[in-house]
Amino acid sequence: MGRIRFGSRLGLRRAFVASFLALFSSLSAAQSDTFRDETTTLLVEVPVEVTLDGEPLRGLTAANFELYDAGDRQEIEGLEVVDLETLEVRPDNPLAVARLPVVARRHFLLLFDLSFASTASVTKAREAAERLVANDLHEADLVSVATFSLAEGAKLLLGFTSDRDQVQVAIRSLGLPQMLERRSDSLRLYIGELEGSLGDGPEANAGGGPSQAGDLAASHFRDLQSMIDRTQASQGRREVATMTRSMSQLAQTLRGVGGRKHVVYFSEGFDSQLLLGATDAGRRAEINRAAQDRELWRVDSSEYFGSADTLNVLDAMVQEFRRSDATVHSVDIGGLRAGGEAARGGGGGKDGLFMIADGTGGDFYENFNDLGQAMETMLERTSVTYILTYAPQGVKPNGKYRKLKVRLRDGPRKAKVVHRPGYFAPDPDAEASGLETQLDIAQRLLDGREGGDIETRLLAAPLRTPDQELGGLAYVPVLVEVDGPSFLGPEGDGGETRAEVFVYAMDAKGNIRDFFSQSVGLTAGMGGGALERRGFKVYAPLVLGSGHYALRVLVRNADTGRSGLRLAALRVPAVDDDGPQLLPPLVPEGIDEWLLVRGRRSDLVAAAEPAYPFVHGSLTYAPAARPELMPLQAVPIFLAGYGLDGLTEMDSKILGADGETVALPRWRLDPRTNTDSGDGLERRIAAFEVPSLPAGDYRLQVAVGSGGDVVSHPVHLDFRIPPEGRTAASRLVAFDSAITFEDLANPGAGAGATQVAAERRRRDADADPALPMGEVAEDYRRALEQLLDGDRPGAIARLATVEQRAVTENPQRRIGRLARAELKVVKRLADRDLEALVPVMLLHKDVYLEHSRDGRPFLEFHSQGMVRRIADLYAERGDSEGSKVVAARALASLGGHLQAKGRTASLELFDRAVDLDPSTEAALLGLAAYYEKRGGPYDRVVAYLDRLVEARPASREGRLRLAINLLRVAELAVTLERSAKVAAAEAHFRRLMEEPGSDWIYSLAAQELARHLARTQQVKPATLALEEAIERRPEDQKLHIQLTYLRDRSHGAHQARKLAKRVSRELATRAPADRGRYNQWPSVAMDQDRRELDAGAAQRLGTLASALGRSTGSPGPDAGPRGEEK
Amino acid sequence: MTLPCWMLLSLLSAVAQPAAPEVSITEPSHLEPVFGSLTVGVSVFGEVDEVVLFVDDRPMGRKTEPPWRFLVDVGQENREREFRVVARGPGGEGVSRINTPPIKIDDEVAVELQQLYVTVTRGPRRVLDLTEGDFQVFDDGRAQELVTFSRGEVPLAATLLIDSSMSMKGERLTSALRGARAFAEGLEDLDQAMLMLFSDQLMRSTEFTHDPAVLLDPLAGVEAAGNTSINDHLYLALKLLESRQGRRVIVLFTDGADLHSVLDMEEVLWKARRSQALVYWIRLEAGAGSNTSFATAWRNAEGNRSQLENLERTVDQSGGRTLTIDQLSAIEPAFRDILSELREQYVLGYYPSTINNDGGWHEVEVRVGSGLEVRTRDGYVDF
C-alpha cells in the first residue's frame, strides 16, 4: 500500500509518494515490489521538541506521547529521534548527516529587513548572522537567506541548504546580483561565488575600513530606503501593511518546507504607535483636549486607539507563520547598531518586533551584539527532535487546516511540548507557485530517506584528468538511471512529459561542491519505446576535488510531481594520486536499451570535458547502474581503473540487503589490459558468475590487490535478482570471441585477496601437456589442405572437430591457446602470400556456422574472433581498397549470421566493416536492420540507409527500407521536414514499383505505399497501387487482403467479399509471406556478398596452396608450422 | 361391386388418416428485401410434429411446438433469398415458400433488429433459467423493448481460425487440431463452420459445412510453418462470415502475437464493430518468460503492445472472451467450453428506439438481477 508522507505541501497533492518505501528500506528487496500499489494513505510526521526548564528532555519513547488530530486520538506508528549532540560528523562519512530525515533538521531562515533598518544596522546584522551560522548552528541545520524591502517585498535569496559557504555568500551579497559570479541553480541551493575581493568576510572588514562590497550594499540599501516616506502616519500604516502582507506570503510559502522553521528576523521594527495607538501620555492628553474642544480635525482615532486594519493584518501574518510551523525570532538590530545612529520609529520599533516573535512562539532579542550567545538557549532547547508518525483516517483532500495536539504521558509535569499546531490536508486541485515548487523539490532533494515513486539508480566514476584541463579536479560522470514505467506512472497518458534531474555532490559538512541539473522533454515512444520499456539514463558530468561526498540525485516528473531520490557515498581520489584506483564495476548494456541523455554544462569548457568514457574499442555502452541479473548468469564486466598494472589479485564478495556477505562470486578475467582509448583508463574485461541466490537486491563489492593485500578501495555495484518466473530486464552487451578469459577463483570469506596470477595461468596453459601447440597447428594445417583438395564440407567438418577436440576438457582455458596456435599458422601464411588468407577467413566463417548449429558457444566465440583477426590482418597488410572491401564483406557476412541469432556483437562487426569499406551494403543494411528490429531510433536507421542509398543507389532493399523508415521519422518531424520526408518515401516506393520484376521488394513497396496512402485518406490512389500490384503478383495474398479491406471501407462491400472468397478459395499457400522476409535476416545483399566472397575464395585456393608449400591436391613438405613449433 | 368397395375403402381411409398440415409464411413479406437478423413468422393449421425453416435450402431452424416464430440471421449479402417452411405431421408435409427480393444498391444496409447473444454467469457457472422478464436492455442508455427472446437455439456459423505457424510445431498444433475436431464434432444439423489454418499466410481453408468430415479434411498432414499474421486472417474471417446466416462466431487459436500482418488490429476492430460476430480467443501462453513486449522490423514494442490490446478489445467488444491457457491438455476443453457457452446463450432481439444511420457507436448494456454477471457485445455501429 502506498502512502503519502506529510512533509511538504506539494507532496500531499500528489497521488502517490513512495517515501514510504524509504521508510522500510531495510526490508528485503524481494518484498519491495509488493509495496507498489496505488492505494494511498496519508502519513503525517510531527516533529516535537520536549523541554524541561529550558533543557531538552531525552530518552522518550512513543509510549510517552499522545497525539490528537482534529481532536481524535491517533495511534503513533513510528518514532524517530534526532539528537544533534550525539550526531557525529566526520569528513569521510558524508552520509551521516545526509541520511537524516529532512523534517528532523532545523530550518533557519535568516530574514533581513532592508526597509525598517538603517544601513549601518543591516551591515552589523550581516556580520552577526555570519557569526551565528559559522559558530553556533549545527552541521545538520539547514539555512536559508531572505530579504524584505518595501520595494521588492520578501525575496528568498537562498533555499534551505546545508551549504555554509553559500549561506555566507547570500548574507554578504544580500541580493545584489552584481556581487556574484552566478551559476544557475534552479533550486536556489547554490547562488554563486562572491567576486574577487568582494568576498572579504567580517574578519577582513574588522578593521573598519569600507569594502567594495560594503559600498555596493550600502548604496543599494539607501536606494531601497529612499522610497519610504515616514512623514505621514497614514503612509507608515501602509508600509506596515505592505510588510505584514508580504511576510504573510513568505509564511505561506514556508508551508511547503517540512520540519520546524526558525525565522530569524533582523529588523529595527516599525513605529508601534501604528499598531497600538499613541503610547506617549503627553500625546494622548493632547488628543483628548482636541476632542473636547471639538477640534476634530486634530484627532486621528487610529492614532489614539491604534489602527485596527494594521493590527488585523499583523495578526494574520502571525497566524500564517504559526500554521506553517514557523517561529519568528526577532532580533532588534538597533541593539546591534553602531554608536551614534538613532533607531527609527521613534524608538518604538521593539514593540512590533516583540509582537511578531511572541505571537509565533519565538523569542525577541535586543541589544545582543553576540547573537550566538543570545540564541544559545533556543539552540540547546531545540537540539533534540522526536518525529512522531501516524496515519490519520478519513482525511478529506480538501486543503483544510487540521489542528494537532501532542501531549506527554508519564513525563515530568513541568515539561513543555512544542510542536506544529496543525497541518493542511492534501488538496489535489491547489496550484503551487514557482517558489513553492522550488522549495518542495529542494526539500525532497535534501531528505535523508531514499526512494520515492520513481525508481532511480546512479553510478559515479571519478576519472583522473590532466591537471591543466580541469584545474586539478577530477571529472566524475554520474550516470542516473531512471526506470521508465515508474517515471511515467499509472497516469502516464503516452503524450509528452518533462523530466527534471538534479544531481548534487556535497561534502561531509553539507557544502555543495558541484551540481548539475537537466530538464528533459520526453515523448511517448522515444528511443523506439525504450522510454516505456526500460527508461532513460542521464549522463551528468560533475567536477570535484579529492574527498568524500554524498551524492544526491533527485528525479522528478514535472507533470505528475512523481519523484525519486537516491543517495550514495562517493570517494574521489586526488588526480595526482598514483595509487591503484578502481572504478565501480561497469556492466555494459547496449546503448539502445535505454533512452540516453547526455547532460551538458555550459560552465565547462567543452575542450576540457573528457570524452565519453564508457567505450571499449568500437563498442559504446551505457553501464547499468543496477542491472537485473539471473542466477548462474555469466555477467560481462569492465573492471576499469588506474594503476592496476601488476595487481593480479582481487577480493570480491556479494552482500545482501543487510550488508552481510551472502556469497563469493566466481570470476573470469581477460588478463590483458586495454588502454587503447588513450584516456589513461585501464580496462580489464571480466565476467563474474552470479551465484544461485534468491530474488532480491544485492551488492557486489570488489577490490584489487597484490601479495595478499587489498590495495584499492573497495568499489561496488548493486544488482537485483528478479523474482522467480520473471526474466532479467537488463540486456547486457556480450563480449566477442577475441577475449580469452582466465578463470579466477574467489577467495574464501575472510581469507583476504586470492592469488589469481593471470599471467602465470596463461603460461601454464601454454605448457599444457594435454594440448601441445604443435599438434594443434598440424591439425589446423591438415584442415586447410582438405580445403585445397576441393572438399570444403570436409574441411569445415575437420576444422570444427579439431577445434572441438582441442578444447573439450577445459574450453575456457584452452580456447585462448587454440587461437594462438591457429593464428601462428595464419600469420605464417600471410607472410608468404596475403591473399591466402581469404579462403582461410571464409573457412572460419563456415566453421562458425557449424559450431553455432551444434551449440558450442565457446567455439562460436573462437570462430568469430578468428574471422575478425584474419580480416583485420588482411585489410591492414593489404593496404588497398580491394583488400578492405573483401575484409569488410567477410565481417559483414559474419555479422549477418550473428544478427540472425539476435546477437549484439553483430554491430561491432558491421561497424568495423563500414570502417573498412563505407559502402558495404550488407553492413549498412545490417546496422539499419538491427535498430529497426529493436524499434528504433528510426532516425539512426534512416541515417544508415541514407548512406547506403547514396553509396549504392541500385540497392533495392536499401531503398525499400529507407522509404519505410522515412515515413516513420516523418511522423515525428515538423511540418516542412515531414512533407519532404513523405515525398521522398513516396518517390522511393513508386520508383521501386516502376522497376521491372515482381519480387518481394516490389510487393512490399506496393503494400507500404498503399498503407501510407490509405492512412492519409488517399483511398483511390491506394486502391490503384494495389490493383496494379495484383496484376503483377496475382498470387499475392497480402495484396488481396489489403485491397479487400480498402474496398470494404470505401463502399465496395460486395467486391470485398468476392476478393475475400478468392483469397480463401484460390490463394492459400504454404509459401512464407514477403513481409516475413523484411523482418528476417540475412538480407539479399548478404547472399550476394557471400556468393562473391565464395568465388573470390575459390580463386585464391592456388595462392593458399603455394603459401602452404604445396600444389593444389598434394600437401607440401615444408608447409607445416609444426617444425617452427619445435 | 369392385368399384363401390374401393370407394368405400378409400373413404374409410380418408377419415382415419389426418390431413397434411397447411402452412404459410406470415413474415417477412415477399416484397421486402431482408438482411441480417429477422423473425420469420409461420402460420400452421393441422397436426404437426415439427416445422422446419430453410433459407436458400439451408435449414435454419426447427420447432416442434408453437409459437411458430424463428429468429434467424440471413447475413448481409444483398441478394434474393428463398424462405421455405416445411411442416411435417402425421398427415404428411405442408410446404410454403416465398422469395424476398434484393435491393438495388450495392452498399451496406441498415440492420434494424439488433440481436444480442448474452452469456449470464454466477461465479464460474452459467445461469440457464432466466426468462425474458429478467432482462433489461439499454441502447445508449435508453431502455429497449425486447421483441424476441430465445436461448441458444440460433444456428451457428463458425470460423475456426487456427494458428499453424512454426511456433505451433509438434504437440501444440496436434492439440489445437484435436480441439478443432472436438468443436466440429459438436456441431448440430443446422450449424455450419469453416476452418482456416494460418501462419503469416492463409495456409488452408474449407468452405462452410456442417459435415465434420469435410471440415476436418484439411487437417490431414498439415505441418506448422512460417510466422504469424493474426490481424489479416481475423479480418478475412470476419469478412467471410459477413454473408453467412445464423449466429456468427470466430474461434481464434494462437500461441503468439501478430508479426507480419499488412493490416493493423485497429482496422480489424473497425470491421469487428460492424459485424455481429462473437470472437473467442483461445490464447496459449508461451510459458514462463513469455514476452509480450517485443519489437520487430515492422513495429516497435509500443506498436506491438497496441496490436495486442486492440485484439483484446476486439474480443471483449464482440461479446466473446479470451480463454488463456498454459497447458496443452487445456486446449480441447477450451474448444468444448466455447461450444457449450454458445449453446447456453440467451438471444435477445430488439428494435433500437433511435437509429441515425450515421456510423455512430451505440453502447449496449444488458442488466439482469444482482449477483449475476452478463457478457455481451459492447455495442454496434449505427449505419
- The CA-CA distance between the termini of chain B, in Å, is 74 Å
Q: Overall pLDDT of chain B, averaged? A: 85
**Secondary-structure element series of chain B:** HEEEEEEEEEEEEEHEEHHEHEHEHEEEE
Number of helices of chain A: 38
Q: How many distinct beta strands of chain A?
A: 41
Structure characterization notes:
The complex is a heterodimer of chains A (1126) and B (383). Chain A is built from 38 helices and 41 strands. In chain A, the strands form nine sheets. In chain A, strands 1, 2, 3, 6, 15 and 17 form a six-stranded mixed beta sheet that branches. In chain A, strands 9-8-7-12-13-14 form a six-stranded mixed beta sheet, sandwiched between helices. In chain A, strands 33, 34, 37, 38, 39 and 41 form a six-stranded antiparallel beta sheet that branches. Chain A is of the alpha+beta class. In chain A, 41% of the residues lie in helices and 22% in strands. In chain A, a hairpin with a 5-residue loop joins strand 33 (649-655) and strand 34. Chain B is α+β, with helices and mostly antiparallel strands and 383 residues long. Helices cover 23% and strands 34% of the residues of chain B. Chain B contains seven helices and 22 strands. In chain B, the strands form five sheets. In chain B, strands 15-14-13-16-17-18 form a six-stranded mixed beta sheet, sandwiched between helices. The termini of chain B are far apart.
